[in-house]
Design goal:
Length: about 190
Protein backbone atom coordinates (compact mmCIF):
# COMPACT_ATOMS: atom_id res chain seq x y z
CA UNK A 1 0.00 0.00 0.00
CA UNK A 2 2.84 2.41 0.82
CA UNK A 3 4.34 1.83 -2.64
CA UNK A 4 1.04 2.80 -4.28
CA UNK A 5 0.80 5.89 -2.04
CA UNK A 6 4.37 6.87 -2.96
CA UNK A 7 3.65 6.41 -6.65
CA UNK A 8 0.38 8.38 -6.62
CA UNK A 9 1.72 11.12 -4.33
CA UNK A 10 4.84 11.78 -6.37
CA UNK A 11 2.99 11.33 -9.67
CA UNK A 12 0.78 14.21 -8.52
CA UNK A 13 3.90 16.26 -7.76
CA UNK A 14 5.36 15.44 -11.16
CA UNK A 15 2.13 16.31 -12.97
CA UNK A 16 1.43 19.63 -11.30
CA UNK A 17 4.88 21.02 -10.50
CA UNK A 18 5.51 23.92 -12.87
CA UNK A 19 8.61 26.08 -12.81
CA UNK A 20 11.13 23.55 -11.63
CA UNK A 21 11.95 22.29 -8.20
CA UNK A 22 11.56 25.52 -6.26
CA UNK A 23 8.04 25.85 -7.60
CA UNK A 24 7.38 22.24 -6.60
CA UNK A 25 8.51 22.49 -2.99
CA UNK A 26 5.09 23.63 -1.68
CA UNK A 27 3.39 20.78 -3.55
CA UNK A 28 5.92 18.23 -2.27
CA UNK A 29 5.48 19.59 1.26
CA UNK A 30 1.70 19.27 0.93
CA UNK A 31 1.89 15.67 -0.30
CA UNK A 32 4.44 14.64 2.33
CA UNK A 33 2.46 16.26 5.16
CA UNK A 34 -0.88 14.82 3.99
CA UNK A 35 0.54 11.28 4.07
CA UNK A 36 2.51 11.97 7.28
CA UNK A 37 5.79 10.72 5.80
CA UNK A 38 7.97 13.41 7.44
CA UNK A 39 7.58 16.12 10.06
CA UNK A 40 7.66 19.75 8.91
CA UNK A 41 11.06 20.26 10.51
CA UNK A 42 12.51 17.15 8.85
CA UNK A 43 11.03 18.28 5.53
CA UNK A 44 12.84 21.63 5.85
CA UNK A 45 16.11 19.82 6.55
CA UNK A 46 15.61 17.56 3.55
CA UNK A 47 14.95 20.56 1.29
CA UNK A 48 18.25 22.07 2.43
CA UNK A 49 20.11 18.78 1.87
CA UNK A 50 18.45 18.29 -1.53
CA UNK A 51 19.52 21.77 -2.61
CA UNK A 52 23.10 21.04 -1.57
CA UNK A 53 23.45 17.67 -3.27
CA UNK A 54 23.93 17.12 -7.00
CA UNK A 55 20.81 16.58 -9.06
CA UNK A 56 17.32 18.04 -9.21
CA UNK A 57 15.74 18.86 -5.87
CA UNK A 58 12.47 17.10 -6.73
CA UNK A 59 14.29 13.89 -7.60
CA UNK A 60 16.49 14.07 -4.50
CA UNK A 61 13.47 14.63 -2.24
CA UNK A 62 11.45 11.87 -3.90
CA UNK A 63 14.35 9.43 -3.62
CA UNK A 64 14.95 10.22 0.05
CA UNK A 65 11.29 10.10 1.04
CA UNK A 66 10.68 6.91 -0.93
CA UNK A 67 13.73 5.31 0.65
CA UNK A 68 12.70 6.34 4.16
CA UNK A 69 9.20 4.90 3.68
CA UNK A 70 9.77 1.69 1.68
CA UNK A 71 13.49 1.15 1.24
CA UNK A 72 15.15 0.81 -2.16
CA UNK A 73 11.90 -0.13 -3.93
CA UNK A 74 10.20 2.95 -2.47
CA UNK A 75 13.06 5.16 -3.68
CA UNK A 76 12.77 3.74 -7.19
CA UNK A 77 8.97 4.10 -7.24
CA UNK A 78 8.90 7.68 -5.89
CA UNK A 79 11.72 8.81 -8.19
CA UNK A 80 10.12 7.17 -11.24
CA UNK A 81 6.74 8.70 -10.42
CA UNK A 82 8.09 12.24 -10.05
CA UNK A 83 9.97 12.16 -13.37
CA UNK A 84 7.40 10.18 -15.40
CA UNK A 85 5.16 13.15 -16.35
CA UNK A 86 8.13 15.29 -17.43
CA UNK A 87 9.55 12.42 -19.43
CA UNK A 88 6.26 11.84 -21.25
CA UNK A 89 5.75 15.56 -21.86
CA UNK A 90 9.28 15.93 -23.29
CA UNK A 91 8.64 13.01 -25.63
CA UNK A 92 5.39 14.63 -26.78
CA UNK A 93 6.89 18.10 -27.13
CA UNK A 94 9.83 16.76 -29.10
CA UNK A 95 7.46 15.12 -31.54
CA UNK A 96 5.29 18.23 -31.90
CA UNK A 97 7.85 20.96 -31.20
CA UNK A 98 7.66 22.99 -34.39
CA UNK A 99 3.90 23.32 -34.56
CA UNK A 100 3.17 23.55 -30.83
CA UNK A 101 5.54 26.41 -30.03
CA UNK A 102 4.10 28.54 -32.83
CA UNK A 103 0.56 28.13 -31.50
CA UNK A 104 -0.68 31.40 -29.99
CA UNK A 105 -2.62 29.56 -27.25
CA UNK A 106 0.47 27.67 -26.10
CA UNK A 107 2.41 30.95 -26.04
CA UNK A 108 -0.35 32.54 -23.97
CA UNK A 109 -0.29 29.66 -21.46
CA UNK A 110 3.51 29.87 -21.13
CA UNK A 111 3.41 33.65 -20.66
CA UNK A 112 0.67 33.22 -18.05
CA UNK A 113 2.63 30.61 -16.10
CA UNK A 114 5.74 32.78 -15.69
CA UNK A 115 4.30 35.15 -13.04
CA UNK A 116 2.74 32.21 -11.20
CA UNK A 117 6.07 30.41 -10.98
CA UNK A 118 7.83 33.56 -9.78
CA UNK A 119 5.19 33.98 -7.07
CA UNK A 120 5.45 30.35 -5.96
CA UNK A 121 9.25 30.48 -5.74
CA UNK A 122 9.13 33.77 -3.81
CA UNK A 123 6.45 32.47 -1.44
CA UNK A 124 8.46 29.32 -0.78
CA UNK A 125 11.57 31.33 0.03
CA UNK A 126 9.67 33.67 2.35
CA UNK A 127 7.94 30.70 4.04
CA UNK A 128 11.26 28.96 4.68
CA UNK A 129 13.01 32.10 5.96
CA UNK A 130 10.15 33.06 8.28
CA UNK A 131 9.70 29.47 9.47
CA UNK A 132 13.37 29.07 10.32
CA UNK A 133 13.85 32.56 11.81
CA UNK A 134 10.57 32.92 13.72
CA UNK A 135 9.11 29.40 14.03
CA UNK A 136 5.63 28.20 13.23
CA UNK A 137 2.63 30.52 13.44
CA UNK A 138 1.15 28.42 16.26
CA UNK A 139 4.21 28.97 18.45
CA UNK A 140 6.27 31.95 17.38
CA UNK A 141 9.83 31.86 18.70
CA UNK A 142 12.74 34.00 17.58
CA UNK A 143 15.79 32.04 16.42
CA UNK A 144 18.43 34.76 16.67
CA UNK A 145 21.14 32.60 15.10
CA UNK A 146 19.01 31.97 12.00
CA UNK A 147 18.14 35.68 11.77
CA UNK A 148 21.83 36.66 11.93
CA UNK A 149 22.85 34.06 9.31
CA UNK A 150 20.00 35.16 7.03
CA UNK A 151 20.94 38.83 7.42
CA UNK A 152 24.59 38.08 6.63
CA UNK A 153 23.66 36.03 3.54
CA UNK A 154 21.29 38.73 2.27
CA UNK A 155 23.95 41.40 2.83
CA UNK A 156 26.52 39.27 1.00
CA UNK A 157 24.15 38.62 -1.89
CA UNK A 158 23.34 42.27 -2.47
CA UNK A 159 26.61 43.82 -1.30
CA UNK A 160 28.88 41.53 -3.30
CA UNK A 161 27.81 42.95 -6.65
CA UNK A 162 28.56 46.50 -5.50
CA UNK A 163 32.17 45.70 -4.57
CA UNK A 164 33.06 42.87 -6.96
CA UNK A 165 31.18 44.23 -9.99
CA UNK A 166 29.68 40.82 -10.72
CA UNK A 167 27.11 38.48 -9.20
CA UNK A 168 27.82 36.19 -6.27
CA UNK A 169 27.92 32.58 -7.39
CA UNK A 170 25.07 30.48 -5.95
CA UNK A 171 27.61 27.75 -5.23
CA UNK A 172 29.72 30.17 -3.20
CA UNK A 173 26.60 31.33 -1.35
CA UNK A 174 25.73 27.69 -0.49
CA UNK A 175 29.29 27.06 0.75
CA UNK A 176 29.22 30.24 2.86
CA UNK A 177 25.84 29.31 4.36
CA UNK A 178 27.09 25.78 5.12
CA UNK A 179 30.17 27.17 6.88
CA UNK A 180 28.04 29.67 8.81
CA UNK A 181 25.62 26.90 9.81
CA UNK A 182 28.47 24.70 11.04
CA UNK A 183 30.03 27.62 12.92
CA UNK A 184 26.78 28.65 14.60
CA UNK A 185 25.02 25.32 15.16
CA UNK A 186 28.02 22.97 15.33
CA UNK A 187 28.20 19.53 13.79
Amino acid sequence: MICLDLFLGFLKVGCFAFGGAYGAIPLIRDVVMSYGWLSDEMMSYMIAVSESTPGPIMVNLATYIGSSQAGFLGAVIATSAVVLPSFLIILLVTALLKTVLKNKYVQAVLRGLKPCVIGIVLATGVYMVLGNCFGAISEIRLNLQAVVITAILVALKFGYKRFAKNKLSPILLIVISAIAGIAVYGI
